Amino acid sequence: MDPGAPRERRDRLLLPCAAAGAGFARRRAGERSRRGAAIEFATGHLTPAEIEGILNTIPAELSFVDRDGKVKFYSEPPGERLFPRTKAVIGRTVQNCHPPKSVHMVEKIIDAFRKGERDVAAFWIPFQGRFVHIRYFAVRDKERNYLGVLEVAQDVTEIRALEGERRLLDWEG
To answer: What pLDDT does residue 26 have?
Structure first.
């Protein structure tokens, strides 16, 4: 995304977790959960359990690689993963998490993000009988300093097949 893009569009790409890690969130005094105090954001506050629940509910696989190229997080969305991961991936360099034939492309994306030349890279591929949309987003703080890369992989097979419209709730059929 271009740095001149509307602020609302840019801000939607900043993950709450990345903002929290960059020091833009504060613990909310007095509010506790089973895993600690709530984290306050510019638009509200969430407990760590709520953040984890939200990230694991999004019907896409999210992975965050920090500014040093190390995998720091991946989500566990509902259903079967497109690209299975284990906790052993945490702390690995991003180059060790992609097939050798695509490492040069990952490095090119990260380099452009670091330099501030680009903010988004998108690909779509047929994969194991499904149609997969993979997007990489540069994650930046409010001063546009590079924090890392968010990878979003989503099976869009059913989305691509949609036709017409649905305006009413239809849980029956």
So the answer is: 46
24 found inside a domain: yes
DSSP state for residue 90 in the 8-state scheme: T
Please give the helix or strand (H or E) that residue 103 lies within, else none: helix 100-115
Entry pTM: 0.74
- Is 36:59 a contact under the CB 8 Å cutoff? no
Tokens 């500014």 belong to 67
C-beta neighbour count of 51 within 10 angstroms: 19
Residue 165 maps to a domain: no
What band does 36 get if pLDDT is binned at 50, 70 and 90? low
Report the alpha-carbon distance of residue 132 to residue 138 in Å, rounded: 20
CATH number for the domain including 17?
3.30.450.20
Overall number of domains in the chain: 1
Q: Torsion-angle region of residue 146: left (phi > 0), alpha (psi -120 to 50) or beta?
A: beta
What pLDDT score was predicted for residue 58? Answer: 92
Candidate from 6-15, 28-37, 150-159 with smallest mean pLDDT: 6-15
Q: Does residue 47 lie in a domain region?
A: yes
Residue 95 is encoded by which pair of tokens? 């180059």
Per the structure, the complete domain to which residue 112 belongs is given by: 7-160
Higher pLDDT, 121 or 80: 121
